[in-house]
Amino acid sequence: MAKSMAVLGTGATGSSIGADLTRAGHDVILVDQWPAHVEAMKAHGLHVTIRGEEFVAPVKAFHLCEMKDLHRAPMRQFDIVFLTCKSYDTTWMVEFIKPFLKSDGVLVSVQNSLNDEWIAPMIGRQRDIGCALELSSDCFVPGRVKRHIDRAHTKFILGELDGQITPRLQEVADILSSVGTTQLTTNIWGAKWTKLVFNSMISTTRAALDASKEVMQTPEVLDLVTKLGRETARVGLALGYTLEPILGLTAEDFVGLKDEMFKKFMLSLFGETDTRSTSMIQHDIAKERLTESDYINGLVARKGLEARVPTPANRAMNMVMKQISEGELQPGISNLQLFEEYISGAKAMA
Amino acid sequence: MAKSMAVLGTGAIGSSIGADLTNAGYDVILIDQWPAHVEAMKANGVRIKMKEEEFVAPVKAFHLCEMKDLHKAPMRQFDIVFLTCKSYDTTWLVEFIKPFLESDGVLVSVQNSLNDEWISPIIGRQRDIGCAFELSADVFEPGRVTRNTDRVVTKFVLGELDGKVTPRVQEVAQVLGKVGRTQVSDNIWGAKWTKLVFNSMVSTTRAALDASKQVMQQPEVLDLVVKLGRETAQVALAQGVTLEPILGLKGEDFAGLSNELFRKYMLQVFRDTGERSTSMIQHDVVKERLTESDYINGVVARKGAEAGVPAPANRAMAMVMKQIDEGVLQPGLANLKVLQQYMSEKAAAM
Fold first, then answer.
1. Do A33 and B65 make contact, defined as CB atoms within 8 angstroms?
2. Domain ranges in chain A?
3. ipTM of this model?
């Protein structure tokens, strides 16, 4: 029988996925909390542009409050839920969808951070599948989504939390293959930490400094990036995670790189970055939306305390991003000074 | 400083409360998941129709997704949150509001059932205040509420979960004094269980049998009502709960009434019932909405199993109401037979 699916929290990422799954003929609904977006999807479908391609997917969109109608027999429950909301909306959304998830169904957290750590206790570890993703898109207008990278470069790394390669994992990968390339892993926690290394050193830095790829290549910025990346990788290793290779290096080698080499590696990385690329955190700031920084640098800082690994750079980044989220600080290169003061201890961190 | 307040889940009850608090000049916002209702309130305020009064309150209404805007400094957090949603929406809405509740704030569960039992582990017992209430209202169209109980009949019994009479519970009582009569209790669990006795014997029975006050007075129906009420009272007593007086009797005496006397008491209750009165469960059935029956008879059945007190009538009622919720059974007097059959099955699965 066809699997019954839901995409929950259909911002840019969820809409991108929901559109492709709908087009592929899957039995899928999109559930979101933004009324205008849901109304637009109901009225006109979902308009997607992806690198020159443009299409409208006739998605089935639901307001949260409409989910209650599903209690009429036969009660609609889902075999697969793709959770695609922001990290800070995770716990309540998981509580929300719990009654609609089949007892042998799975929820796939297609999110940044390590959300499976708090999702698993809520729905049971056996119903949670992890995912590390590469998908860049934005949704500034209700009902319209723009994907920045094509399907060949969109990537989903999927894994059971216990590392086993199961038939259901393969099935989820087959389904997501209409959206991008997929890969199964026996090391999803390591894959997610590896993603966290990049996010904690690049996504928030670009946002906090409002930095172009050229600015990212200046020595002071590279210095900050180096500190952030090294800290995050160290915390992951100290907690016993097996990180995936980073820029072709084992995590241990990556952490042990001399400052100069580290900067060289990062320099070449930024050199290859698309000039128009922006980070998802930058989009949130543009929209004056709460960013996920507390689930990126904030998480690294908290995990650092657990692992007894100092993380001054991540703590500083979290402080700066919090002030930007609150509207008290503007993104810009002048924030570099603030980082120096926080990291050196000249300015106290809460 | 003026207390910052939110009413969360503003259906009929929440809208009634939010309207009176707004008109009393409190700093209060209304948050709901039904987009059309929120839009109507934003555009025209909320219109409340009572028996002898009709007014429009210029409430501040928010969609769930708009709450994120509150992260801009100064971050808006609430001193008092009135949770007025249906019981089945409790856990996810509490998770939703948690980041917005002050560390020394309180959440007041203005709901049926025993929801504080699962609310307090989420926000901490010290931030949870319980409430048993009498307030009947309907919202049949967005932005328009019919409030059936005027302010003199509306009643809120408020209590700290540990039974202490604190300044803050008195303060909450003072605030709700703008909506109805209030009373501070040192036995809120007893008050909530006492309400549960009535709800489990009357509210769902009226809905399941689609019974008028006359039908409720028939011998077979009275027989069912007596079984339900006695079971619920017995389960409460077995759990060590001190019930409030019921129909002028102590909980123990009520539970120990002879069948004949019990029926006589209930007969009088139904004779005194208003001709056009309906139960909130009946409203939900009419609207084809999920009812709270699982949090009324279902909770009693589960608590009974915990306490080793059989509750076959409550279990049967929960099963019948579930089928009515699903639309596979119609409300009506014919369900008496179904209920009797379930009650006679010793180990019927729920």
1. yes
2. 4-185, 190-349
3. 0.90
Instruction: Give me the residue from B33, B72, B326 closest to A73, CB to CB.
Output: B326
C-beta of residue B317 within 8 angstroms of C-beta of residue B205: yes
In B, which residues are within 8 Å of A63 by CB distance? Answer: 33-35
How far apart are the C-alpha atoms of B335 and B292, rounded to whole Å? Answer: 18
* Cβ of residue B287 closer than 8 Å to a chain A Cβ: no
Rounded CA Rg of chain B: 20
Element (H, E) at A286: helix A280-286
Q: Note whether A75 contacts B326, CB cutoff 8 Å.
A: yes
Percent of chain A with pLDDT over 70: 97
Q: Over the stretch A138-191, which tens digit does the pLDDT of each residue have?
A: 999 999 999 999 999 999 999 999 999 999 999 999 999 999 999 999 999 999
User: In 10 A of CB A332, how many CB atoms?
Assistant: 12
Three-class secondary structure of residue B78 per DSSP = strand
Tokens of B213: 């006050």
Same domain, B258 and B137: no
- Say yes or no: B151 and B60 in one domain: yes
Residue that terminates a domain, selected from B152, B186, B220: B186
pLDDT value, residue A290: 87
Q: What are phi and psi of A165, to 5 degrees?
A: -95, 110
How many angstroms separate the CA atoms of A13 and A86, rounded? 10
The domain of B207 spans 201-349
Alpha helices in B199-296 (DSSP H): 204-209, 219-238, 251-255, 259-272, 280-286
Chain A residues near residue B33 by CB distance under 8 angstroms: 33, 63-65
Q: Is the pLDDT of residue B261 over 70?
A: yes
Q: Are residues B243 and B328 in the same domain?
A: yes
What average pLDDT score do residues B118-145 get? 96
Q: Is A258 on the interface with B (CB under 8 A)?
A: no
> In angstroms, what CA-CA distances link B171 with A11, B111, B182, B267?
41, 19, 11, 39
Return the pLDDT at B71: 72
Q: CB-based contact (8 Å) between A71 and chain B?
A: yes
**Does some domain include residue B193?**
no
State the fold for domain A4-185. Answer: Rossmann fold (3.40.50)
The per-residue b/e assignment along A49-88, b for 16 or more CB within 10 angstroms, e otherwise, is ebeeeeeebebebbbbbbbbebbeeeeeebbbbbbbbbbb
Structure tokens at A139: 């949704």
Q: How far apart, in whole angstroms, are the C-alpha atoms of residue A340 and residue A316?
A: 9
Residues B87 and B210 in one domain: no
For chain A, list residues with pLDDT below 50.
none
Q: How far apart are the first and last CA of chain B?
A: 51
- List phi, psi (to 5°) of B30: -110, 130
Q: For domain A190-349, say whether CATH 3.40.50.1000 is its number.
A: no
Q: B95 touching A, CB under 8 A?
A: yes
pLDDT at residue B350, rounded to an integer: 46
* Residue B139 sits at the chain A interface (C-beta within 8 Å): no
Q: Give residue-wise pLDDT tens across range B40-69.
A: 999 999 999 999 999 999 999 999 999 987
Could you give the percent of chain B with pLDDT greater than 70?
Answer: 97
CA distance A179 to A160: 20
